[in-house]
Amino acid sequence: MNCNNAVYRGDTITYTFNFCVPVTDAKVMKIIFKQKDQIILEKYKTDTTAIEIVDEDTIKVRLTQEETLLFSAKYPFYAQIRAICGVNNAVIASDWIELSVGDLLKNEVI
Known about the structure:
Blueprint: E1 13-18, E2 28-35, E3 38-44, E4 51-55, E5 58-63, H1 65-68, E6 77-85, E7 90-93, E8 97-99
Antiparallel strand pairs: 1-5, 2-3, 2-6, 4-5, 6-7, 6-8
């Protein structure tokens, strides 16, 4: 049982990201996950099972067991959100967000 809020490979996890600008009107939004200079995963606003816009400045991004197994526990990984927002079609990008994941004794989806 995971009682220390750590994230492990093979978990299903939901990350919450907060913005300093409204994102409810984002025409395009994607979340990029990168590890060791390699793009591991991209999530798009159009995938409503993966991205939930909670309110004007908060989104939740869900990763499946299969997706968290793509990351190595040896290195941190990073997320960055990019979007096109507003009537002026302003392109915004977040800072890189450093995340980590623990390892499993057995790599499997249960």
